[in-house]
Amino acid sequence: MKTIASIALLSWRYLWSRPLQAALNLLLLALGLALVTLVLLVGTQVDRGFERDVQGIDMVVGAKGSPLQLILAGVFHIDVPPGNIALADFEALQRNPLVAQAIPLSLGDSFGGFRIVGTTPQYPAHYGATLEQGALWQAPLQAVLGAEVARAMAAGARADTQGLPASAAEGGSLLGRRFVGSHGLGGGGHAHGDHPYTVSGVLAPCGCVLDRLVLTSTESVWQVHESAQADDPEDLAMLREEREITLALVRWRSPLAAVTLPRAINAGTPMQAAVPAVEITRLVRLLGVGADMLRALGGVLLGVAGLSVFIACWSAVRERQADLALLRLLGTPRTRVAGVIAAEALWLALLATVLGLGLGHALAGLAGHWLRAEGSLPLTGALWLPQEWAVPAMAVGIAGLAALLPVVRAYRTDVADLLARPA
Amino acid sequence: MIVTRSLGFAHAGAVTLRFPDVQVPQGGRLLLQGPSGAGKSTWLALVGGLRRPSAGTVQVAGTALEGLGGARLDTWRARTIGFLPQRLHLSDALTVAGNLALPYMAAGLARDDRAIHAVLKRLGLDGLARRRPHALSGGQAQRVALARAVLLSPRVLLADEPTASLDDASAAAALALLHETADACGATLVVATHDARAAAWVSALQGAQALWLSAEPGPAGTLATPSQTGPQRFQDGRITL
Asked: How far does the CA of residue A347 sit from the closest CA of chain B (Å)?
């Protein structure tokens, strides 16, 4: 133990006796590892998020347009929907014998950047969501908040809340609180001030897309918009005839539907059917190019770092030939002299691992912060994946490989030459 | 104690060096002389266990070196031999105290800061523990190297050209210090030099022996009478031939 401690101390001193070179090596190694960590964190979370959100949804039916856009809007709520479909068409779809379940979603309004989704209780039930407080909506203009929305509202940062002063609600119940939706999905649109929603319940966090949504009944959305558009009761009646929803999440009754149903809908109705499995594969392939590029960049950085560590260790052994020979002269066994050089590389690996993991997590957190501001994918840096154990393994592997030749050279240091060398 | 018998060493591709037998008692003094290339460094390396003789035997401080090898020889060297190399080889990456901690690591011992400070004080290096070697004067640096050599109280102290670049006064002081320091730990002292001043100084010591190595290849190195240094100052030279 004493020996290991003194080797560690000595190699630490040797390492920082050339601070610039040590810092450069550390930076290269840490950046490479940070990129690898970032790709790992983001990739895994995006995959997991996709998987969870898309689970049990066989098909999304909406207005004609881009199928990928329909999926992004309907399943993940990170894009605007292509348009609306007629309620009559949706009801026809519901009656189709190949359809086991069709959940209607009506989009269009938002609250503080979170989408207000008009739907049926089937939607939260689909994700197995449970209520933390209150109950589901019983009447139009009652709303159930997703966990993240509730947190944002409780934080009192939203300007368009009504009722209690924000600070009074902090920590207390949000039930009964009233808020107004604004037109459009991004926020900043016309506020539907005449039709405030009342909070009837708050969902427990589910780690799925519901966390970022405000759920209400389909009728609420109709009510808000029809009165906003209609000038007189006649108009209102006409609008009621033309009621629409935005899209429907469909579960098939049998796999057979996969063959016939999307084609039938696309060809025979004004609606469009998109199969998430197909579109997600396409999307992942698109994103995958980016992830592969990042991974390749990380690999290049790690390669350069490995080369740089090798050069550093090699020149350290050469420059310190006399120091190492002196250690031998003083009676240090060969293995211990080699250990000093190996320990230098391990110090680099250790520091780079800490820095790289820290930086990777910080970048993931930062990316999550930006994405949250846009109300899209939930992403966090405060997460430890078992795969991340590969990062220290990689660091030690690279440093060890780079130090291998220098260590062998240090092992072979000849002492007697030191004495024989003339002054 | 140093005892060698028909010691020889073959450099790769060069003539075999042969060394006269010596027998230096524990605590004795040996003057090792000869021109460059005569094998002074090789002799030190053989006695210090850094090289293996191609012929003959070496016994140092009661240990026959041919019986030791690898890490055991290293450990033996760490505890038994103190080297004062000609180029001092103090590491600039470390402070003076850090340089003095190296013998402990070499011997696999825990660093003893009190001993380090004691030896610094004894050698007049008070307050220099945190300096870097490049900030020391030549004389100070040599004393730090001497401190490093005697820190673990070796049985044998091997000094290679300890006066090479010193003026007369400093050379005398350095030799006196070597002698006293070796005395303090009861070590046998070997001074290898081609400096006449050093030779004269060591020869004058009570019980000093001298070994003259010649550069000429031959069946054996020549053992010198201290004619180089003035026989009148060589009072009690027991010369082993």
From this structure: 16
**Which of the four pLDDT bands, split at 50, 70 and 90, describes residue A343?**
very high
What is the SS3 assignment for A419? helix
AA identity, residue A418: L
Q: Nearest-CA residue of chain A relative to B85? A: A419
> Half-sphere exposure of residue A272, counting CA atoms within 13 Å on the CB side?
18
Whether the CB of B193 is below 8 Å from some CB of chain A: the reply is: no
Range with the lowest mean pLDDT among A114-123, A159-168, A398-407, B75-84?
Answer: A159-168
Give first-to-last CA distance, chain A, whole Å: 37
DSSP letters for A295-333:
HHHHHHHHHHHHHHHHHHHHHHHHHTHHHHHHHHHTT--
> Is the CB of residue A336 less than 8 Å from the CB of residue B105?
yes
Gap between the Cα atoms of B78 and B49, Å rounded: 10
What is the torsional sign of CA A174, A176, A182, A184? Answer: positive
C-alpha distance from B117 to closest chain A C-alpha (Å): 18
Instruction: Give residue-wise pLDDT tens across range A198-241.
Output: 999 999 988 788 988 999 999 888 888 777 676 777 777 777 77
Tokens 């949000």 appear where?
A174
Are B201 and B169 in contact by the 8 Å Cβ rule? The answer is: no
Q: Which domains does chain B have, with CATH numbers?
A: 2-88+155-233 (3.40.50.300)
**Helix, strand counts (H, E) of chain B:** 7, 10
Cross-chain residue pair B83–A329, CB shorter than 8 Å = yes
Q: How far apart are CA A328 and CA A341, in angstroms?
A: 14
Q: Which residues contact A211 (CB under 8 A, 6 or more apart)?
A: A146, A147, A148, A149, A203, A205, A378
Average pLDDT value for residue range B125-150: 91
Q: Whole-model pTM?
A: 0.73
pLDDT above 80 (res B8): yes
Which is nearest to A276 in space by CA: A251, A246, A244?
Answer: A251
For residue A71, the Cα-to-chain-centroid distance in whole angstroms is 18
Task: Give the position of tokens 């605007």.
Answer: A80
Query: Going along A90-175, which residue ranges are E strands?
Result: 99-111, 114-119, 131-134, 142-145
Cβ–Cβ < 8 Å for A349, A391: no
The dihedrals phi and psi of A61, each to the nearest 5 degrees, come to: -115, 130
Residues of chain B contacting residue A343, judged by C-beta atoms under 8 Å apart: none
Note the helical H segments in A55-109: 67-71, 87-95
Distance CA A336, CA A102 (A): 71
**B64 min Cα distance to partner chain A (Å):** 17
What pLDDT does residue B218 have? Answer: 45
Complex ipTM: 0.85
CB contact under 8 A, B76 and A320: no
- Interchain CB distance below 8 Å, A322 and B44: no
**Mean pLDDT of the A389-402 span:** 89
Give the DSSP per-residue string, B33-101: E--TTSSHHHHHHHHTTSS--SEEEEEETTEEGGG--HHHHHHHHHHHEEEE-SS----TTS-HHHHHH
Amino acid at B162: P
Across A146-252, the runs of DSSP E, i.e. the strands, are: 178-179, 182-183, 197-203, 213-217, 244-245, 247-252
A349-375 burial: b if 16+ Cβ within 10 Å, else e? bebbbebbbebbbebbbebbeeebeeb
Kindly state the helix (H) or strand (E) to which residue A63 belongs, with its residue range: strand A59-63
CB A422 to CB B93 under 8 A?
A: no
